[in-house]
Amino acid sequence: MTERTRFHVVFSVNVGGLPGLGATVTSLIRNCSEPEALVINIMCSNMPEHHMNNIRTLFTTLSFSGEYRFIEYDADEEFRGLPRLLGDLTPYGRLLIPDYIDAEKVLYLDSDLVIDIDVLPLRDFDMEGHVIAAVLGGNVEYTNDLPYFLDRGFGRDMAYFNSGVLLIDIDAWKKKDITRVWREIVKDRPETIPTVDQTILNRVCGGDFRHLPKNYNVAFLAHYKKPDYDRAVFHFIGSPKPWDFLGNLIHSGYSLWKQYSPSFWEKEYQQMSVGRLDRAWNIRRSIGRAFKKRYVSK
């Protein structure tokens, strides 16, 4: 396997993102035509060792024939002063990918996906000179980021993407010095950044990004039927997720997620715990809305 045929995939995870990671990694590997070509990078900040051991066990259980490695960094130091997502700064970790990975192209993936498709065709995807390729999500007008972008002179019709699946051209990133660009961006009233890394990356692109085929990031909300795609990257956006409390009753994507969810991973991250109950309490309104939309509002 030459360096040119290897394909780097990156996850940036915190403890809160681990419940979904098992099925995401499992589906990625199972549906890959050449898993030995994959180099899976796990970016994490201050991750307790027993969680890292669980990830190692996951790869062993899957008999993964490719390569995996951990990239450890300090999110609190790197992103000090930026708005947190659910109290955490690791979502910004994908901004550091070009600092740690020496490759032509890198695929970034969130940990709340089921990758029911082979990702290797993206290895040869023509970026046409763009730094980022992502699925077009629509215009910024229909996002929570609208006030942020209008205040900075961008138009309502600016093309916008969800940052859960990103193909990054590392050479183009470095040539255009995007690291300097995003570090300048976050100095501009950082407290007003509404959607953490997603806001920053969309501002970096300013609507100019390469469009991935739509089936590489398909939104799957709890109360919706499975989107009409035979093979796709299904993205469990919003709350609740299939693995959340009552997810087996509420989320239409539960069976899809369940077929890729390793039993040992569920024992580690699906057991009732203080953390799981705390999350259920925090998203109780979302659980209630999803339940109502699925069972009551028909």
TrEMBL record:
Keywords: Glycosyltransferase, Metal-binding, Transferase. Pfam families: Glyco_transf_8 (PF01501). One of its GO terms (molecular function) is metal ion binding. It comes from the Bacteria. The keyword Kinase does not apply. Transmembrane segments: none annotated. This is Lipopolysaccharide biosynthesis glycosyltransferase. It comes from Neolewinella xylanilytica.
